[in-house]
Amino acid sequence: MQIAPILDVQHVSKTYDTGGGPLTVLKDISFSLTAGTTCAIVGPSGSGKTTLLGLCAGLDRPSSGTVILHGHSLHLLREDALAALRNTYVGFVFQTFQLIPTLTALENVMVPIELRGDRRARPHAIDLLQRVGLGERLHHYPVQLSGGEQQRVALARAFISQPRILYADEPTGNLDAETSEMVIQLLFTLHRDAGTTLMLVTHDLDVAQQTQRIIRLKGGMIVEDSGPPPLRGPGEQGHECLGERPASR
Amino acid sequence: MSAWESGQRAVDTRRVRQVLWLWKMAWRDSRGGRKRLLMAIAAISVGMAAFIAITAFDANVREAVYTQAKALLGADLVLSSRQPFAPETEALLTALGGEQSREISCTSMAYFPKSAASRLVQVRALQGNFPYYGTLETEPPPAATAFRTGLQAVVDDGLLLQFDAQVGDTITIGGLTFSIAGRLKKIPGEAVAAALIKPRVYMPLAALQQTELLHKGSIVTYKVYIKVPPEVDADALLETLHAHLSTYRLTGETARQRAASVGRVMTHLSRFLHLVGFIAVLLGGIGVASAIQMYIKEKLNTVAILRCIGARAPQALAVYVLQATVLGAIGALVGGAGGLAVQLYLPRLLRAFLPVTMPLAIAWPAVLRGLGMGIGLVVLFALLPILAVRRVTPLLALRAVYAERQPDGRDLWRWCVLLLLIGSICAFALSHTERWTYGVGFCAALGAAFGLLTAVAQLLMRLVSNLSRNAWPYVWRQGLANLHRPQNQTLVLVLVLGLGTFLLTTLYLTQQTLLHHVSLANAGGQPNLIFFDIQSDQRDDVVALVHSYGLSVLQQVPFVTMRLVSIKERSTVELRAEKHIPEWALLWEYRATYREHLLDTETLVAGAWQGRIEHPDTAVPVSLEEDIARTLDVGLGDALVFDVQGMPVTTIVGSLRRVDWQRVQPNVFVLFPAGVLEPAPQFHVLVSRAPSPHLSAAVQRAVVQQFPNVSAIDLTLILQTIDAIVQKVTFAIRFMALFSIAAGVMVLTSAVLTSRTQRIRESVLLRTLGASRAQIRQILVIEYLFLGTLAAVTGLLLAVLASWALAFFLFDIAFVPAGLPLVVALLLVSALTVLTGMLGSRGVTTRPPLEVLRNEI
Prior knowledge:
Helix content of chain A is 31%, strand content 27%.
């Protein structure tokens, strides 16, 4: 059975013009992700992980190559169409949480739905915040929340629009080990429940190995790709092809 | 409902919700920044208050001029002449009917026996019930009618105050002593300021005939005020009188014409004040742009997050445009409320210049217009920095390092907004100036002032930066370095504070230069006392009296009054109909003199001066002052015929002179050579110099007592008059300019609050590294001191330049630099800046470091 990929990246390169001349960050990257799967992008600092994430989410445009997200060629879309696409199909979780400081936790979560003019934002947002354990912190501002709480608000915001694909950029990079564990559990739980495709950029191999596929970047190129996972039931996880299997899960 | 309709309704509902979300988001996003933004808005409020006050005041003045049109003249029609009405005119006036009042006015000395003081006044002898519309306001009120019989007078309130005279005291005019029946408070259609030049004294017309004022050569105006029957249209009537008026050298004015001319004058006044007030609005606008720029820089990450989660660029832009619009509306409303309060004060401020009684009404349409304009300007100023939101890439939320940014200079929308802003400012200036050239001039001057202020400020900043040396103590170096910190607002603050300083100092320096110039005339043996209207048979006695006080007579100048009959063989009646030459120049009663030599106040610019004529029966070569020659459209060799008190005298323009009118000298438009006018009836002017004001007053008193028809004017009086007028004019302008200073202080406060977080972080960092609170306070004081000094020096340099330019180009006098006011202004502006800065920085040195550092993480 041939399943259309939700994300198809073909021969993507990205070069920046810097004062010292052109700087190529990504070279000829190609891969595709099937809906509902999980994938980790790993690699050393400066290998192009975040840049690749940005290109896949339509936050930036490749210098060459194509990115097709849910059947839409991103390079053919204008800025506003990209924004609409992100609002409909894409969720984000950032390393630095990126909550809007002037909004409460509840208001932050509601934003993606409110942007669409959907009136059901509030009950849905409250429900999600309760699911991530912040039912008592609805009206707190980001500055009044701990790092872990902020990231849980970010997770709720990412999932409120029921995205087809979720991009997570080092979601535990600013958290301690215990909180990281809790956030990752929550991330995978929400992913499973929503059937969302998950593309995760991380330094943490333990986290990466919880995904079904790992793509390793170095110097802007894919040096290792565990390949697409075999077809499994929705929400089934695990990686057996690359690196070590986690000792305990 | 069809499926399509139901779908369409759903789309519409979604759109409405999206718009509602924009408002909600704008409100939520403004949390934490409202206080700072409101301070910036306070700056525009101050400007708006000034602007709306003037707009509303202007509307009220127009309304008052319209509703009080007849009271501006006191009658429906007034006819006036510089000579007694001819029998034909008297017959015409009898035929016209209606109610009529007669007035004869002339200039004379008034003597107050109680204080033994005298002063030049304008005597108005009245007969009849004038004014027919409006009232002659006196204290006590019955005096307005009581003075019209017997030997009674009502005297300008200011004059009575000056000489400490009371109602019931006496005043001597033209050899007659009058009882002062009342204080004159207001005359219909006349501004109080008119009394500064010549205070007015009303007396009965019958009494004037008993005085010795109506001699040959005296400047006398004869008027008849007419209240026409209700069925007669005064304007139409005046049209029918045109031929008669022209033949008998009369001028006529109707209430409608007076209202139109007063309306024009008031429009000029309010337009000028509008422009001064507009500068305060612009300063506030710059403050708003600066504050919003800082605000938006802090919001870039929020915008990037919104873009990441699906907000389109126009939506993100709309959030901040809405914030700016709401803040602009708040600023305009607060400014509008303040403006209404100021509007109530303006009639008092400008009372001296208002010939109408101002109603205490709020001109709502004008206020709403002002509000709309204010909001529009705030949004335009705010749009400049807000447009940057459109170009925020969502990638910024991931990482700012590789975010590609388009330089501001290439943003077409930014240029459009900038052009729209400049266009709006120019359109405003053009709509508030009499001629488009003035509007362009205002814009150019404004642009030049801003450009020069920016250039000078940048130059000074560079100088200060270069001056900073490693050898200086740390707190000095840090304080100076803060002026160059990232996102500093040094230039904007120097601009707004400098402009306020520039405006106020320019006014003060110009005022001082004018007064100094007049007082200079008192130095070096220059004449400072002039007696005029001396009849030929009084001349020797007046000279003897002046000598008896130990004063020398510097000049004795004979004057012969004459009128123009024809120019280049065309009669003045004919020329008046053509309206090519101004009517006043054709009707003017010229006071010519004759002598053999030119004076040191005169310079020959064309032709040759012939000092004596041996055969006066041929055309007499006269010398004309160059400006009057231009007005009369004559040049060398052109013929002019004068009527010298009944005798036609044919002249040709033999030469043209440039005259220094600013010297206290009896200068003339028309100068005859000797040998022509000697036999003509004439009066004399005597020029002297009194070494002290005391002696000047004493000799004037003696002359006026012995020769009641003789008038005197001295330099002290000229100085007092100019000082009083300049004081009143500059007070009004200074009042408006104060709004600019207030706007500047608001912008400063806003900038201090905007950078407060940054300062707290720096303070904590320095304290963590071991700096004491005292050192941090010193750094702040040094920073604000330099900022204030930079702004003051910039403003003062430009003020000196502008005052010089005004003196040189406009007043044609030498600029007098005044050192002390500049030093005082420098100290005041610097102190004000330090005070505002330190007040706004309260708490910067007391926040616990840990609290701040924890928030940083």
